[in-house]
Amino acid sequence: MKNLLEKGLLFDTDGAGGDGAKGDPKPKGDKQEKGDKDKGEPTFDQWHEGLDDGAKELLKGHVSGLKTSLATEREARGEAETAVRDLAKKAEKGSEAQAELTKLADNLAESNQKLEFYEQAHEAGITNIKLAFIVAREEDLINTRGVANFEKMKETYPQLFSKIRTPDGDAGDGTEEKPKPKAGMNEALRAAAGKS
């Protein structure tokens, strides 16, 4: 047991808490780090400005390569849809093969529309892209190529553009505050029955 404690595999439940390694307690007092809560979260632009010129060029080249790959993929998807529609036209009129090929072409078109929308929605600052796509289709705010009217969407559904909130991670770790105990099943049942 002591050997496991020394290796940091078990917590010392009789000790002062600690990080699991040799039962060392975490430091207390003013020297304890508060994390990034006081600093605020940096934006991409702030991070990018902090890079040296060489790193900026490296990043620019990487992004350019990704954009080229994306454009190539988009073009290939469009060509595949066109090819399947041509096959559907050549199939016997009203046949099962024609129906299946038409259905496949429609699925490809929908997939292309969705992928195009997802890319634009990310750049527009939408936080829930899947929900935004459903809204755009239901409200007829998107064309067949995936281009959406984000201005109208923002007017009608501003909550889709809200800032993502990240929850605090460590529940009191690194602070003087102890985390609040979570209510158990008994407390939930009592609350539901109206007995506190």
Overview of this protein structure:
The protein is mainly alpha-helical and about 200 residues long. The protein has a domain at about 50-160. It is about 55% helix and about 0% strand. The chain has 7 helices and no strands. The chain has helices at about 1-5, 45-50, 55-90, 95-125, 130-140, 150-155, 185-195. α3 runs antiparallel to α4 and α4 (about 95-125) crosses α5 (about 130-140). The model is unreliable at about 1-5 and about 10-40 (pLDDT under 50).
What is the structural class?
Answer: mainly alpha
Helix content: 40-55%
Radius of gyration: 28 Å
How would you state the average pLDDT, rounded? Answer: 74
Strand element count: 0
Give a quick account of the main beta sheet: strands, pairing sense, barrel closure.
Answer: none
Q: DSSP strand (E) fraction?
A: under 5%
Q: What sort of overall outline do the alpha carbons produce when their principal axes are compared? A: flat
Q: Termini separation (Å)? A: 42 Å
Output the helix-strand order.
Answer: HHHHHHH
Q: How many helical elements?
A: 7
Low-pLDDT residue spans? 1-5, 9-38
